[in-house]
Design a protein that fits this description.
By secondary structure, the chain is of the alpha+beta class. It is built from 9 helices and 12 strands. Strand 11 (324-325) and strand 12 form a beta hairpin. Helix 3 runs antiparallel to helix 8 (250-262). 23% of the residues are buried.
């Protein structure tokens, strides 16, 4: 198994390498699918800032391969994208050489469609080249390309991460204004698209400097060998050295390309179809189409899966009984503890209070005899045994599981409240007089009230 990154992405095998990071085939344990993971190789602030810019790009388009998610683990950072298995345009040219014009027009239309979506977000790619244009493994079906690698792309108006006289990109695919230090703009991407078109039609990297010099010295040249004239008109419009004379938008170039396709001759009868092969290779051992094998299934839990506990010699285990509810509403369950068998004895009349005992499977309940089998100890009286009322339902005895229930104890009698304490009573039934101190206090209070009343009357 590979290294699991941030608890989610399992790195499997490397499938590519760029200037800032290595690309791995990885398994996403959360979404349960294979993805391409670009792992940052350097950790300096400048490279990390570019890495953050790239992973922040979110463009949803069928011909754009933009980052989908990212993760960090200690000092490592990665972001993921869809896994594309057909390799790049370089692989296709390596397999077939120059491609048929109509096949090239299909690829150019998809590339301009994706680039129009990128430009609509205000982003300049700045590094369009065959190695950054990936292909789905469609076999002999309709090709499907994806524009990828936005490592040095930037939005118009954002601050640049390089000096104004420092050119970023791939030599051979620079627009003339880029070499002069101009601000990145959309026509520079379109110039690179024109160079990619020549590469697909001729099967080799074009000499961009010689083309620019020829355009500047002699104007638009004639169509090169192997390039149809209608298609060359579109490509020449992409390769104009002056950005003001170039196509200004990818949508405009796409419309011109659609018109040129109508003028192309039909394909030759013996023209072989172009097949886009799977370039990723087989998965390493331990991985399948559905990912790595999952964790082993948990063992089933329950009585059937549990091994019986060892028992002591000569012991008997009473099987567990389902929970029952007796007529009083209390739950009772037979215990499941090993007990030692005893010799059956004559049952005695239970006494109150009843002490719970461990049920024994070999005891056979019988009706209690009128007289006890064994007398009580000398000097002790036999306690009274309350009779069971009909409220308890049927008599308690052995259950269908072999357990034995003792009769429930008699409900305790409610305590009788004590009689309220009344005033003290003399012998003979008369009420006793109050204490002398209480009488003196009452008389003093009465005299005080009388004096206040007399004084009030004299004031009238």
């Amino acid at each position: 198994m590979g290294e699991v990154f941030a608890g989610r992405y399992e790195l499997i095998d490397p499938i590519g390498r760029g200037g800032a990071g290595a690309v791995w085939r990885a398994w996403d344990h959360r979404r349960r699918r294979y993805v391409a993971a670009k792992v940052l190789l350097q950790s300096d602030a400048h490279t990390l800032l570019r890495f953050v810019r790239e992973q922040a790009l979110r463009i949803d388009h069928p011909h754009v391969l933009a980052p989908a998610s990212w993760a960090a683990d200690d000092d490592k950072v990665l972001f993921t994208m869809d896994l594309v298995g057909g390799g790049s345009l370089g692989h296709v040219i390596g397999d077939y050489g120059p491609l048929p014009p109509r096949f090239v027009c299909t690829l150019l239309d998809q590339l301009l469609s994706g680039l129009a979506a990128v430009h609509a977000e205000g982003v300049v790619h700045r590094d369009i080249k065959p190695a950054n244009i990936l292909m789905e493994a469609t076999g002999t079906g309709r090709p499907h390309l994806r524009l990828s690698d936005f490592g040095i792309s930037m939005r118009k108006g954002e601050p640049r991460l390089t000096e104004t006289d420092y050119v970023v990109g791939t030599p051979g695919y620079f627009a003339p204004e880029q070499l002069l230090g101009a601000e990145p703009d959309f026509p520079a991407d379109l110039f690179a698209v024109g160079l990619v078109a020549l590469y697909l039609l001729q099967g080799r990297k074009p000499d961009s400097r010689a083309l620019v010099e020829h355009f500047l010295a002699h104007g638009t040249p004639d169509a090169p060998e192997g390039v149809p004239a209608p298609l060359w008109g579109v490509i020449a419009g992409l390769l104009q050295p002056d950005p003001q004379n170039r196509f200004r938008t990818a949508t405009g170039a796409r419309k011109a390309l659609a018109e040129a396709v109508e003028l192309l001759p039909p394909p030759a009868p013996d023209e072989d179809p172009v097949e886009v092969f799977d370039q990723l290779g087989p998965l390493p051992p331990g991985f399948g189409p559905q990912g790595p094998p999952g964790p082993p299934a948990a063992a089933p839990r329950g009585p059937a899966a549990e091994a019986p506990a060892p028992q002591a010699p000569g012991s008997v285990t009473v099987p567990a009984e389902a929970v029952r509810t007796d007529p009083r509403g209390t739950a009772r369950t037979a215990s499941q503890e090993p007990v030692t068998p005893v010799t059956p004895v004559t049952p005695v009349t239970p006494v109150t209070p009843v002490t719970p005992v461990t049920p024994v499977a070999t005891v056979t309940p019988v009706a209690a005899p009128p007289t006890p089998a064994a007398p009580y100890p000398a000097g002790s009286a036999s306690p009274a045994i309350p009779a069971q009322g009909p409220a308890y339902g049927p008599a308690y005895g052995p259950s269908e599981t072999g357990s034995f229930h003792l009769p429930p104890p008699t409900a305790p009698t409610a305590p009788v409240p004590a009689a309220p304490v009344g005033p003290p009573v003399r012998a003979g039934g008369r009420i006793a007089p109050p204490p002398a101190k209480a009488v003196a206090s009452l008389l003093a209070a009465a005299l005080l009230c009388f004096a206040v009343g007399v004084w009030a009357l004299t004031q009238l």
